[in-house]
Amino acid sequence: KNLMSNESRMSPGAKFGLIGGLVYVVLLIILYSYPPFNPVTFAFYKFLVYLVVLFFLVLCAREQRNHQGGYATVRDLMRQMLIAIVTLELFYATFNYIYLNLIEPDFLDNLVNNTRLWLESKGIPEDQIEAQMEQIKVSRARPNLVNTISGIGVWIVIDSLFAFIIAAVIKREKPPFGE
Prior knowledge:
This protein has helices at 12-33, 39-67, 74-103, 107-121, 126-139, 145-170. By secondary structure, the chain is mostly helical. Helix 4 (107-121) runs antiparallel to helix 5 (126-139). The radius of gyration is 20 Å and the shape is elongated. The two termini are 30 Å apart.
């Protein structure tokens, strides 16, 4: 029996969820280890890291289509990408929870302080800086179980919207009468 038969192979969703999750964590470790003093740069780097996540969703969808003989519906692709998404977001949430609570609990405070310094260096008036700091304070909560679970839910929805677009582009329907 072929060791890589359909019964024994790992699904593309699980495969790219695991590989992508590990890559995601490594990239976050690098990002968090060398935080820039400029919050715009930090946000840009986080965006680049997120593009890597989307890249893994594309790989997942392409592999699923290839496993189905070059044809796959949006539904087939979404099923596998949803597995990858949940896995990726679990890696992200678990890492952030551990990192921000146990490894570097001052990270968020340092990021806020760096944001203040950056705004001051740009000559932003103090009242606008205070308003910005208050907005950050309201939106920033130390990760706890409730915040972590709700964050996972929000990002699963956002990721799924991107996955739907990816699936719509990568799908290839079987011709009704063959080729």
